[in-house]
Amino acid sequence: MAKTSKIKPGAGDALIVVDVQNDFCPGGRLAVQKGDEVVPVINALAQRFENVVLTQDWHPAGHQSFATSHPGKKPFDSIELAYGEQVLWPDHCVQGSDGAALHKNLSVPHAQLVVRKGFRREVDSYSAFLEADRKSRTGLKGYLDERGVKRVFVCGLATDFCVAWTALDARKLGFAALVVEDACRAIDMQGSLSAALEKMKKAGVERIDSSDIAQ
């Protein structure tokens, strides 16, 4: 969406780069179509921000969100866990594996924080702020509050899951939130993208392109 004037990030802004990991890129275990295309966009975008946070899915082997942990189930089935409905995924982003590593061409050397999420075997975590039980916090809000951040720009993989959940939780926790659409790619599974976009609209999450942000 073109803006009449460019957004100029300052000390009160942070860029959150969500899960740009090998398993979410082409050739990975849970590849997002054209997921690697976000890398050069994010590299350029990050240079405009003083505050940058990276996130990583960081699952132990046998995580509850893996279809292989539930005999008779297959990837993309849904089950009920203690905290509600859980989509079952192919094994992905296993701690210490190459699939869990950040994409080799992602170059954001000035990022100050890496948030690893989904590291508890019994609880999945899409959002950079809150795990799927909607109670366990990652500590990111406290970090941003300490840094005086009031507005977050979210990008990465995938638009309809971890990016959307992060942006929605940012709004719930009192931050202004913008999703940088050309720096994201979606899974778009059974209408998941349109549903996520509608939720974000209702929550007041703004959708922009990297070209809307001043160099």
Describe the strand arrangement of the main beta sheet, using strand numbers. 5-2-1-6-7-8
Shape: globular
Instruction: Give the biggest sheet.
Output: 6 strands, parallel
Regions with pLDDT < 50 over 5+ consecutive residues?
A: none
Radius of gyration: 16 Å
Short account of what is shown:
This protein is α/β, with parallel strands linked by helices. It has helices spanning 38-46, 140-146, 159-172, 192-203, and strands at 13-18, 52-57, 78-81, 84-87, 113-117, 151-157, 176-185, 206-208.
Structural write-up:
With 215 residues, this protein is α/β, with parallel strands linked by helices. The protein has four helices and eight strands, in the order βαββββαβαβαβ. It has helices at residues 38-46, 140-146, 159-172, 192-203, and strands at residues 13-18, 52-57, 78-81, 84-87, 113-117, 151-157, 176-185, 206-208. The strands form two sheets. It has a six-stranded parallel sheet. Strands 3-4 form a two-stranded antiparallel ribbon. α3 links the parallel β6 (151-157) and β7 (176-185). α3 (159-172) packs parallel to α4 (192-203). The protein starts with 12 loop residues before the first strand and ends in a 7-residue tail after the last strand.
